[in-house]
Amino acid sequence: MSTSVSLIGGGILVLLIAGYLAQRNGLVPPPTPKIAGIDLGTTFSSIGVYQAVTGDTEILPDILGKRSVPSVVGFLKNGTVLIGTRAVEQQEHNPKNTIYDAKRFIGKTFKSDDPQFIADLKRYPFTVKLDSKGKAYFEVELDTGIRKVSPEEIGSLIIKYLREIANDKYQTTIPQLVISVPAEFDENQRNYTQKAAELAGLEVRRIVSEPTAAALAYGLHKKKGVEYIIVFDLGGGTLDVSILWLQGGVFVTQAMAGNNRLGGQDFNERTQKHLIQIIEKKFDKKIVDKEDIQQIRLAIEEAKLRLTDVPSTNIRLHLRTVGEFNYELTRKEFEELNKDLFDSIVDPLEAALADCNLKPEDIDEIVLVGGSTRIPKVRQVVGSYFGKAPNYGVDPELAVVTGAAVQAGVIGGGWPLQVTAMELPTNRRKVHLYTHNSEA
């Protein structure tokens, strides 16, 4: 009897191995994924799928070829909803009905007389209001009247857009996801993020913190000799620093610090003010036209991206107020305009290390996350502080979604079978720092 059982067991194992090898060598197609990883970011969002058999992750592009989709939703007067790049393209002519930065508001309660909330409202051309419970919502103007839209509704529209990318790719309906959130998100913010996914028709199998997802993307949970990891996340709107302690494949967040008023948009705003001053001085006219301001804002964002690779770039504008205007912006000038902002990057690093009694030399690995870490000056400041080069191998905009996809693949049981790292909840509170110069 035992011999028969052994033969049956051995036969099953042989079939499993044969199936695995056949899939790996392309003899049969891999199974259709049932779960995806999503990074619902403040500025950009992405979706990734763990590839069974190969163990690779694929970050899926949308129809425009964008793997990082702008977290922007535009509402046209006739009720049409545009998402991502399409929303950004019409933003210049429809600023009041184009919503971005919704993640800043999700699951939070505000007071209408809070100076910081009032200051935040001035950053946006669209209307933000509070309901009777202090929850933020947006108002957009449609032909049928005013429509109230919640932050989680904006999130759900972005998630649904991402899901459709995966559905089209695999010609199936992917029903589940792993979604990432900032490590500092409390239970309420996590619940509202989950609600956004559910509104998009998806079941959330797991919520993973963004720093842990980024560490997973680099496979640090499998790297020997790694105990302390610092994740430096500088996106469009916020700077988050997290220190992770890795022991036996388990991540524990030891400290969190950050500046919720420092990101790529702040570098842009500083540069935008400078450029507007130059234009106004040259033409002796005030730039108040909203379409002109929006055009300048978009041109500066494009220039900042170009300055990552070249020392100077030309900004060409055609403004309704003054007509044609050209300006050469150099990387050196960009860095000088934002010097105090770049200097303030060090503050959260120091605060996070102090919070868990560590020194820079105690950190084994540095992980950069967020598109703004592509800025050469940012990498220089971080590298100099720790005296070692950060990890660059994974696209910083895609590190979090890559890690979420890895987690999704393991939950989905894809080959090759592996045990990924676990994450323990933390009771640490984030140390909030703010830019010294309030003008920023």
Average residue-wise pLDDT: 87
What is the β-strand count?
20
CATH fold name of one domain: Actin, Chain A, domain 4
Strand % is 15-25%
Protein described:
This is Heat shock 70 kDa protein 13. The protein is α/β, with parallel strands linked by helices and 440 residues long. Among the domains are: 72-81 and 97-155, Defensin A-like; 264-340, Actin, Chain A, domain 4, CATH 3.90.640.10. 36% of the residues lie in helices and 24% in strands. It is built from 13 helices and 20 strands. It has helices at 2-24, 85-89, 115-121, 151-170, 187-199, 210-217, 264-283, 290-306, 331-337, 339-343, 346-355, 376-386, 399-411, and strands at 35-40, 44-50, 57-59, 69-70, 73-75, 81-83, 98-99, 127-130, 136-142, 145-149, 176-181, 203-209, 228-234, 239-247, 250-259, 312-319, 323-330, 365-369, 422-424, 431-432. A hairpin with a 4-residue loop joins strand 13 (228-234) and strand 14. Helix 6 crosses helix 13 (399-411) and helix 7 packs across helix 8. The chain is globular.
